[in-house]
């Protein structure tokens, strides 16, 4: 074996050994930088599962594939009042604890039917933080879906202004 090839292979192995642990380590931080919200990696994962339950993947992409959870976080961080942001953060932690209690396990581990039944129970709940959190999340997830690139390019038929002339339109 050539000495240069052996040294090169040794450097590849050493570099891989240094980089590999960083690939599997949990950072604990959200993948998006937020100015006003403090969201952990687990909270982000829970929100991704929630948006996937709200907008499931069928023949169209779902909430996870369209990254709607990041849209929800960014919109809450940028466009909502500090009071709403605080209620959202409290509601997220309340939803996490409530869903674990109701499902006897994590929300992400539950099947789709039990997730949908759980989300139906939120309207009947007495917890106002939970209702506010779900309301904001649902509204922003739908807004993100309707404004996503997929919907705007594949589902919405766009006509340039002024559009077609329709002589039979009622006056």
Automatic annotation (TrEMBL):
Q: Which domain of life is it from?
A: Bacteria
Which named protein is this? Gluconate 2-dehydrogenase subunit 3 family protein
